């Protein structure tokens, strides 16, 4: 199957009152890829044990998925520069999501001081815009549980092209 024919979706999350966020982590609403609602963005606005904003893609309610369930995806996460879209910061990766590796992304997405510097255009009128583009390459097992939009996914740790769960436990294991 050609890459352009694979199921894909782009999702944009506008986070208002960003400087007033007080929780350690937040999930976007769940968005749909390949007909299933299962890809919220997970963000650590003050970093995940780092001086960087940390952003991941997450599969909600992963503990309830059957053994053997997996999705192989390519995805990108972008913090939009609201003054000049060409200056936006994008990071790309691939991952095989499973029940046990249900989130993946970037612990060191961008330095917090760059995000908060009003002159750089990433936080405008106290709003940060994050975009995810997801391409599903392979699906094994039953579809994910459909999560109603009103029910937030459970809290989940993640990584910088490794999982955040390991970051919470041990700190970074690579040079990121």
UniProtKB/TrEMBL annotation:
Basic and acidic residues bias (residue ranges): 163-176
Signal peptide segment: none
Coiled-coil parts of chain: none
MATH domain boundaries: 8-134
Region (Disordered): 152-176
Keywords noted in UniProt: Coiled coil
Source taxon at top rank: Eukaryota
Key word Coiled coil present: yes
Protein name: MATH domain-containing protein
Organism: Punica granatum (Pomegranate)
């Amino acid at each position: 199957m050609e890459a352009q024919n694979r199921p894909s979706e782009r999702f944009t999350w506008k986070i208002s009152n960003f400087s007033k966020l007080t929780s350690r982590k937040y999930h976007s609403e769940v968005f749909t890829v390949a007909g299933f609602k299962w890809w919220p963005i997970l963000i650590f606005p003050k970093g995940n044990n780092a001086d960087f904003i940390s952003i991941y893609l997450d599969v909600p309610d992963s503990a309830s998925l059957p053994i053997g369930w997996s999705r192989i995806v390519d995805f990108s996460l972008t913090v939009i520069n609201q003054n000049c879209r060409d200056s936006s910061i994008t990071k790309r990766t691939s991952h095989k999501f499973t029940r046990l590796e249900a989130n993946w992304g970037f612990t060191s997405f961008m330095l917090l001081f760059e995000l908060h510097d009003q002159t750089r255009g990433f936080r405008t009128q106290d709003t940060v815009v994050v975009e995810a583009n997801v391409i599903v390459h392979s699906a094994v097992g039953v579809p994910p549980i459909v999560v109603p939009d009103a029910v937030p996914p459970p809290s989940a740790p993640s990584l910088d092209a490794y999982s955040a769960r390991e970051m919470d436990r041990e700190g970074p294991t690579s040079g990121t």
